[in-house]
Write a structure and sequence with these properties.
Elements (H helix, E strand, L loop, with lengths): L2 H10 L1 H20 L6 H23 L1 H9 L10 H21 L3 H20 L17 H20 L2 H4 L13 H16 L7 H12 L10
C-alpha cells in the first residue's frame, strides 16, 4: 500500500479518517500518561554513567604516575602542560561525578565538568582515529585505518586457528581491534547534555528532595525539583 493510495483512502473514507484520528488521540493520551514515570529516563542515564566514570577516575588514581607521564610526554603521549595537576583534576572530576550521579546530587552542576572532560578527551585522544570505537571494515564510519585493522584481525585469526587453540581463546568472547575513536566519548557527552537539561529525575534523586524541601519551605514553586 503506497502513500498516495493511503492518503486517498483517508480523504474518501470518513470512517477510516475518524478511526485514524481516534487512534492518534489514544496513542497521544497513552504517551502522556507515561510521563508519570519520566523519572526513569534520567535515572537510567545516571546509573549507566556511574561505573564508567568511577572506573575511569579510580584507574587514573591507581596509576597516577604512569597516567601523568602519558598526559605530559610529547613523543608517545598527549603533550599536555602540568600533567600531574591535570590527572588529579580529571580523576577527581570523574570519581566525584560518579558519586554525585549515583545519589542524584548536583546532577546538572556536575554534568558541566564531566562534559568538558569528555569533550577534551574526544578532541585530544580520540578524534584523530575517527568515529568508531571498535574497528569495522564497512559502514559509513569505516576508514582506511579501520579497514586495515580488520584485514590484520582476519590474518591474526587465521594464524591462531591454525597454530593455537582458537576455541579456547574465544571461549569468553571474540577478538576485536580497538580503534579508539570518539564514539564512546561522544555518547557519554550526549548523555550528560541530557542530564544537564533534565536533572537527576523526580523522586529518585537527592536534588529533587532537597529542592522540594527548601523551595516549598520558602514558599516558592518547586518546579521540576532539579538542581
Amino acid at each position: 500500500m503506497n502513500n498516495k493510495f493511503l492518503n486517498t483512502l483517508i480523504e474518501k473514507s470518513p470512517v477510516f479518517q475518524e478511526m485514524a484520528i481516534k487512534t492518534a488521540k489514544m496513542a497521544t493520551v497513552l504517551c502522556d500518561k507515561a510521563k508519570c514515570a519520566d523519572f526513569i529516563a534520567p535515572l537510567l542515564l545516571r546509573l549507566y554513567l556511574v561505573p564508567i566514570f568511577w572506573m575511569a577516575g579510580s584507574k587514573k588514581f591507581a596509576s597516577f604516575t604512569d597516567t601523568a607521564a602519558w598526559f605530559g610526554n610529547e613523543d608517545w603521549g598527549l603533550g599536555l602542560p602540568l600533567p600531574y595537576l591535570l590527572v588529579f583534576l580529571v580523576a577527581t572530576t570523574e570519581v566525584l561525578g560518579a558519586i554525585f550521579l549515583l545519589f542524584g546530587f548536583g546532577v546538572r552542576l556536575i554534568s558541566i565538568p564531566l562534559m568538558i572532560t569528555m569533550a577534551v578527551a574526544a578532541i585530544t585522544v580520540h578524534l584523530k582515529h575517527g568515529w568508531l570505537a571498535i574497528a569495522t571494515g564497512s559502514g559509513i564510519f569505516a576508514t582506511d585505518r579501520t579497514e586495515g585493522a580488520v584485514e590484520r584481525l582476519a590474518a591474526a585469526k587465521d594464524i591462531l586457528q591454525q597454530y593455537g587453540n582458537y576455541e579456547w581463546l574465544t571461549e569468553n568472547g571474540s577478538f576485536v581491534i580497538l580503534n579508539n575513536g570518539i564514539e564512546f566519548a561522544a555518547t557519554y557527552f550526549i548523555m550528560l547534555v541530557v542530564l544537564f537539561f533534565t536533572g537527576g529525575g523526580r523522586y529518585v534523586s537527592a536534588d529533587y528532595w532537597l529542592r522540594r524541601k527548601f523551595i516549598i519551605e520558602d514558599g516558592g514553586n518547586p518546579g521540576r525539583h532539579n538542581l
